Amino acid sequence: MDGLYDEGFFLLVGPLEGTDDVLEIVRARDEDEVRRRLAADPWMGSLLTVVRIDPWTLRLGSLA
Question: What is d(CA 1, CA 62) in angstroms, rounded to the nearest whole number?
Answer without folding.
Answer: 22
